[in-house]
Amino acid sequence: SKNGVVGAADVDRLVNLFPPCMRQLHTHLRQDGHLRHQGRLQYWLFLKGIGMPVEEALTFWRKAFYRLTDDQFQKQYAYNLRHSYGIEGNRTNYTPFSCMKIITRTPPGPGEHHGCPFRHNQGDTLRGHILSRTSDKAVVNEIMALAKEQHYQLACTRLFEVTQAAVSASARATGLPEPGAADADAGSAAAIITHPNQWFDLVRGAQE
Ligand code: SF4
Question: Is 0.90 exceeded by the ipTM?
């Protein structure tokens, strides 16, 4: 990515910095070559929010839906995608969904992968998300318990802190400059995750 622009080819590299709700959508998109309507909407607005312009979005989604012909993609998806960027239709410029919106919208049904894993995927799927970031049993249990007690965003914030620490450590290991102490404070103790794009911005800040 250059000048904060996220290109279609950048996403697979950046996905490790995404919150669980978006990693989940990305994983299923890659597995199935498809996402259903609610998942598409949640994920493409997130990608828009991290800096993906509409031309890159059209490229990204065209390639991701590899089973479709160009004609099918144009007819079924390209218009809606441009619409979500405010280019078609009533020109509403749709903004990426907040955690509250994702948590309270229609829950995912069979074959759907949208929503918030802390709210909608408690159990092995959520445990897998946490284990991908830490093997510390106490932390895993703490986050699972927060989710069970319906403190979804607090649970996510704890996972965010673990993720950010891991990303900072790997940045140090690869010789990148460490974030200053003030930056580290701003990114951890003070922040409660209320938006998936906030998670990404803070973790990316820790990496740089
Ligand atoms: Fe995504 Fe927000 Fe749920 Fe975290 S709390 S997984 S950022 S919707």
Answer: yes
